[in-house]
Amino acid sequence: MKSKKRIVLAYSGGLDTSIILKWLQENYNAEVICYTADIGQKINRKKILYNAKKFGVKNIIIKDLKDIFVKDYIFPMIRGHAIYEGVYLLGTSIARPLIAKDQIRIAKKYKAYAVSHGATGKGNDQVRFELGYHYFGPKIKIIAPWRIWKLKSRTDLINYAKKNKVSIPKDKKGAPPFSVDDNLFHTSTEGKVLENPKNFAPEFIFQRTVSPEKAPNKATFVSINFRNSDPVGVNGKKLRPSKLLEKLNQLAGKNGIGRVDLVENRFLGIKSRGVYETPGGTLLINAHRAIESVTLDKETMHKKDSIMSRYAELIYNGYWYSKERFKLQKIIDLKKNKVNGTIKLKLYKGNITIESRVTNSNSYSIKKVSFEENKSFNKSNVERFINFHKKKLK
Question: What is the pTM of this model?
């Protein structure tokens, strides 16, 4: 007897992907394999297993990718100081390439003919997933339900769920939930009251940060240790990547650090409003800039700054595996071996202050900069320097 064809579905166990699971079973004569990448989101293994088994799924795969996610995706992005449109630290954007890569690995392992995702037809994630799928499995078919099914709205989705006995979660106010994405790096919240930019973000939507007003009245101090441009420890204690980020999330979150309310320009041309929480990541990017300031030369730092906007846009648009991103990463990492030391931060009611910068690097010279010492810097050359640049004004 000929075995059924297989589809690997990126599955969270939540409402959208549970509906997609049922829809795939109804519309394709194929076995659906449910795949969940554990990248530090709030994961309920029992719920995933229960909801998938309820629809007869035999292969349910949950893969722990937390350390890979932080070490090979977040840390390179932090080294590049990637910030999209001035404020967004790209927490959702950076997760999709890894999920896509491992989903294709599963598809190849089980000889699946197709992969599927739950990204909506208006969002960026469909692009990010599918560029990753194409890079690692160009011959594998992609099924994007939101672009082809007849369900046109959230209301249609809820009605379909009720008809097919898919459980519908409720938010804290008893209504169908906001659209939430979370991982070890961040949490994003979209939809409902947030769709109108004139509305304030209700406090109950925040999941990993307290409001600055409710943060402790006493400052918290934290030291981040860097080696070869990557964080390796907190307060002198060496930690593996995922545990380091967990620790920083906890410290920053309780001090009201890492909130962003953004109206962003999506890759597809739509403006959307989202609320993001990136507590530990906010500490890392501030600390990393601080350690580079005392370890890297001016030319290297300014070159990195000049490409940051493009680098961030490539990540946002789903081009993590592009030749251009790889090329920019080489520029970013050219002198990473020089970035070593410790940055001490003061955290207080949503604010971050650099307390100290400690390094063995000789890039920063106290003798040259000091007002009390005049032998290390030849000021007689300054007039020639100024005269040279005067000519450039013409």
Answer: 0.92
